[in-house]
Every structure is written in C-alpha cells, then in structure tokens.
Design a protein that fits this description.
This protein is an alpha+beta fold and 364 residues long. The protein contains 14 helices and ten strands. Strand 8 (225-228) and strand 9 (233-236) form a beta hairpin.
C-alpha cells in the first residue's frame, strides 16, 4: 500500500527516506499505525502514526510531553555511554516546520518515529520471571525521569487517575440515572461508595504533597515494553499517556491486571484469585529499580495502590453502565456490569491479601 496521501504526509517530516512499502501495523485500538519499509535495505525503517485527537484533545501538548521525556532519557543514555541509544528510547522525527506532528487536510495529527528492529512484545505474562523484567522496565523508566519535575508536563487526559474527580462523575451518574439502572444495583454501588473515603486519600496526598508529583507512564501493560530476541528489556513504548501523576498509579495499574488470575471481565467471580507469585516477582523487579528514588510514603503505599486502581476501574465501569454504556466498547448487554462486578470482587480479594502484599513490599 503506497497511497500518495501517505507519501505526502511523510514528505512533510524533516527526514530523507525512500518508501518501499507502507503497511498497517499492530492491533492498537486508539491510534492508526503504519510501518514504513524503506530503501535501500540497510536504511532505517519508520512508523507513521495518526494520533486519536478525539481521545487526546491536546496533541501538541502530548507531543511536547513525549519530546521532553524522551529527550531527558536520551541525554542520560548518552551520558552513560550507551552504544544503542536509538534502541533504548523512542526517536520521534520533527516536521519541517519544527512541530512534532503534521496535519492532513481533515485536521488529523500524524507523527513519525524510528522503527526499532529485531525486537518483540509479550502480550501476556505467564511466568514470574517475565513479571520481574516487566516491572524492572517500568521502574527503570520512572527512575530515568525521577529528576524531571512533573510540573513541566501537561495532563494529556485531565484527571485521568484523580479519584475525587472520578467519584464526582460516579455520583453524578447515580443522580441522573440516565439508563434507569440504579435501583437494581444498589448493593454494588454501595460497595464502591463505602470505600470512597479510604480510596480518595491518594489524591488528597498528592494535593497536599504528602506524595510527590512524578512523571508516570499511566498505561503499564506488558505489551508496552519492547524486548530483544534474548528477552532483555529495550525500552518502554506507547508514551501518549505520559504525564504528571503518582508513581503509585503505574505500580497499581500493572497489578490490576497482572495480579488477577482471571480476565477483568470474568463473569464467574469464583475464578477471580490473587496471583501471589506474579505480584511478588513484579514488586521485587519494580523495587530493584525504583527503591533508590521512591519516598518511604510511596513504598508504604504500593500495596494500597493496587486496591486503589481496582476501585477506580470498578467505579469507571459502573459509571459507564449507569450512563447507558456510552464510553467503553461492550461486547454484549450488561458487559460493563460484569466488568464492575469482577473488579469489585478483585478489590475484595486484594483486601483479603492486604497483609501478604504489604509484607512482600517490605521484604523487597
């Protein structure tokens, strides 16, 4: 597929390349991504990506975040004598007008970055060793950015993990009862509301600076890490959600999925169990990189962050269900309700394992 429209877009970037082939790449649900194979064969390949400006309302601000963070990491790699810098951090190509994106005739935003060859992603963690390496990667990413003030970046999605803001949206959905579903779900709603005081403490700690504002990834899925063919970590990718936040977000969100033996929409609640081995490996891997910069308060609340993220996600699913399923894509009637019940049950499981989780962090 060598559509002249794409060639025209690429020509707006400040790079000389000859397009041999351009083809859709990956299975992302938010952005459209294309792999540009270049000629001659020894020339580097590139990725052309359309950013979804319906989700990311401020693409210029998002790209500023990415440039600041990747530049900071790149400088550290160079200073450390790293020989393969372009494989250890994403490299975005500026447009000829100096911006980090170009616009097409429809107002879409397109970016161009180097393709990192001879690498792979892992879709699912099967073994504790994989969890350890993944946690090291995310911990190292935070460590590389620990001396970069969070205030220098914008919020690409405002109030993304702000529990107080999410709670307000949830309470509003109850009051409006747009889909007429509140009366049938009082018990589930109360389970979320009953934990609100404890869970919103994370945002209050950020507001009063009990917790430091850091630069965080905010999408700590295993498939956002590149590995070489020997399973060594190369770099963290998919930086669209990099913004100011708490280090606890990244740790807790990873365990929200990795620590659960069942999918996040498991209808059989008896299958939802805590994966202690994966959690222990992840905590050890994360702390091996992050312990040098985390404050005692952050370390003390790593286990809490896992409960917080499960609570937040349960609340987001339930908010959407009460609003009539207008945000999340659903596969069947009641899907968001099933998701909510599964997340609440996982939260209960984490509460049952609170002491175990806290002791693992202390030992790490």
């Amino acid at each position: 597929m060598n559509n002249p429209i794409y060639s025209e877009l690429v020509n707006k970037f400040d790079v000389n390349l000859v397009i041999k082939e351009l083809a859709p790449f990956g299975n992302g649900h938010i952005n459209d991504t294309y792999l540009i194979t270049t000629s001659p064969a020894e020339a580097p390949d590139y990725m052309l990506q359309r950013k979804n400006h319906k989700i990311f309302k401020d693409v210029p601000g998002m790209m500023k975040n990415i440039v600041i963070t990747t530049g900071h990491i790149r400088n550290k790699l160079v200073a450390a004598g790293e020989k393969e810098v372009d494989r250890k951090v994403m490299t975005y190509i500026p447009a000829k007008d100096g911006q980090m994106f170009v616009n097409d005739d429809e107002g879409n935003f397109w970016t161009l970055f180097l393709f990192i060859a001879d690498c792979k992603v892992v879709e699912n963690i099967q073994k504790p060793g994989q969890a350890y390496r993944a946690a090291q990667a995310f911990g190292h990413f935070q460590q590389q950015l620990a001396d970069l003030p969070g205030e220098e970046l914008i919020e690409t999605i405002p109030n993304f993990h702000n529990g107080i803001s999410r709670l307000f949206d949830f309470q509003l959905s109850i009051l409006k009862d747009a889909a007429g579903r509140v009366s049938d779900n009082q018990l589930l709603i109360s389970k979320i509301i009953d934990r609100a005081v404890e869970m919103t403490s994370l945002q209050r700690w950020l507001d009063d600076k009990t917790l430091p504002l850091r630069i965080t990834h905010n999408d700590t899925k295993i498939n956002n890490i590149l590995f070489d063919q020997d399973n060594n970590t190369l770099c963290v990718i998919d930086l669209d959600t990099v913004m100011p936040g708490s280090a606890l977000y990244d740790f807790g969100d990873a365990i929200r999925t990795l620590g659960n033996k069942a999918p996040e929409d498991e209808p059989d609640l008896t299958k939802i169990e805590f994966n202690k081995e994966i959690y222990e490996a992840f905590a050890q891997g994360y702390l091996s990189e992050a312990k040098v910069f985390l404050t005692p308060t952050e370390i003390d609340n790593l286990a809490f962050s896992c409960r917080y993220m499960a609570w937040e996600q349960a609340m987001r699913f339930m908010t959407d269900y009460l609003n009539g399923d207008v945000y999340y894509k659903t596969d069947y009637q009641g899907h968001n309700l099933v998701r909510t019940m599964a997340q609440v049950r996982y939260l209960e499981v984490l509460e049952e394992n609170r002491e175990v989780m806290e002791n693992i962090v202390k030992a790490g």
